[in-house]
UniProtKB/TrEMBL annotation:
Belongs to the class I-like SAM-binding methyltransferase superfamily. Cation-dependent O-methyltransferase family. GO terms for biological process: methylation. Methylates caffeoyl-CoA to feruloyl-CoA and 5-hydroxyferuloyl-CoA to sinapoyl-CoA. Plays a role in the synthesis of feruloylated polysaccharides. Involved in the reinforcement of the plant cell wall. Also involved in the responding to wounding or pathogen challenge by the increased formation of cell wall-bound ferulic acid polymers. InterPro entries: Cation-dep_OMT, SAM-dependent_MTases_sf, SAM_O-MeTrfase. One of its GO terms (molecular function) is S-adenosylmethionine-dependent methyltransferase activity. The gene is Vigan.01G035800. The lineage of its organism: Eukaryota, Viridiplantae, Streptophyta, Embryophyta, Tracheophyta. It comes from Vigna angularis var. angularis. Keywords: Methyltransferase, S-adenosyl-L-methionine, Transferase. It comes from the Eukaryota. This is Caffeoyl-CoA O-methyltransferase.
């Protein structure tokens, strides 16, 4: 039976371990506000063999809010999959905004493409079928790209998170925001290694190292948020 006692509170933070509480949040304030095309894309992605591994819809809501309050127009998307966060961003930035999106998996992108087209936002997207690192390096070859982006969402291979960080720190303007998904790696960051399944151990270690390094990085103000699978938001300050 679902735990019906009050959720635990630690350091004045409700521990979202109750499925009921998350269900309440999603059903009350997230799903009713989710754009129809996003909902359809999310449902279509659930049929993918890997299931829906896009940004969590409640995290998406926060990302959209940050895109709006920061007036983001030019963004970077590392890790597209079927495009949930990509479509969310495209729906949120202005009509003359631009997203440079990169992922070596075009097939997954094409699952989401009909929804992107239907939403009428394809003109804002420049999808590059490639691992992200060489694309980011290419962008950095042109000095005009330095500090020209307002926002970046990083949701791809963990082993490169720090490599992405070093590059987006140059591409995103001072005051711009970078969001790193999966900071909690399914909650494994707070578990001893022996309690973690073999397939999650490597990325757990990478997450621990990245989270620690970013927490010490003076170039950014951070907000480490327990939403979805954990998102670290960074505002570039230097
Ligand atoms: C968790 S999914 C991204 C989900 C997406 N942001 C969304 O909201 O639907 C991770 C994606 O990262 C991609 N990926 C893996 N290695 C990559 C790399 N080196 N460069 C760019 N994308 C990569 C995978 O192909 C996969 O589609």
């Amino acid at each position: 039976m679902e735990n019906i006692s009050e959720p635990k509170v630690f350091a004045n933070t409700v521990i979202l371990q109750s499925e009921g509480l998350l269900k309440y949040i999603l059903e009350t304030g997230v799903y009713p506000r989710e754009a129809e095309t996003l909902k359809e894309l999310r449902n279509a992605t659930a049929k993918h063999p890997m299931g829906f591994m896009g940004a969590a819809p409640d995290a998406g809501q926060l990302i959209a809010m940050l895109l709006k309050v920061s007036n983001a127009k030019k963004t970077i998307e590392v890790g597209v999959f079927t495009g949930y966060s990509l479509l969310l961003t495209a729906l949120t930035i202005p009509d003359d905004g631009k997203i440079i999106a990169m992922d070596p998996d075009r097939k997954a992108y094409e699952i989401g493409l009909p929804f992107i087209k239907r939403a009428g936002v394809q003109h804002k997207i420049d999808f590059i079928e490639s691992p992200a690192l060489p694309v980011l390096d290419k962008l950095l070859e042109d000095a005009e790209n330095e500090g020209s982006f307002d926002f970046a969402f990083i949701d791809a291979d963990k082993n490169n998170y720090w490599n992405y960080h070093e590059r987006v720190m140059r591409l995103v303007k001072i005051g711009g925001i970078v969001a790193y998904d999966n900071a909690l790696w399914g909650g494994t960051v707070a578990l001893p290694e022996k309690a973690v399944s073999k397939d999650k151990q490597e990325w757990r270690l990478l997450s621990l190292a990245f989270n620690e390094a970013i927490s010490k990085d003076c170039r950014v103000q951070i907000a480490f948020v327990s939403i979805g699978d954990g998102v670290i938001f960074c505002r570039r300050i230097a």
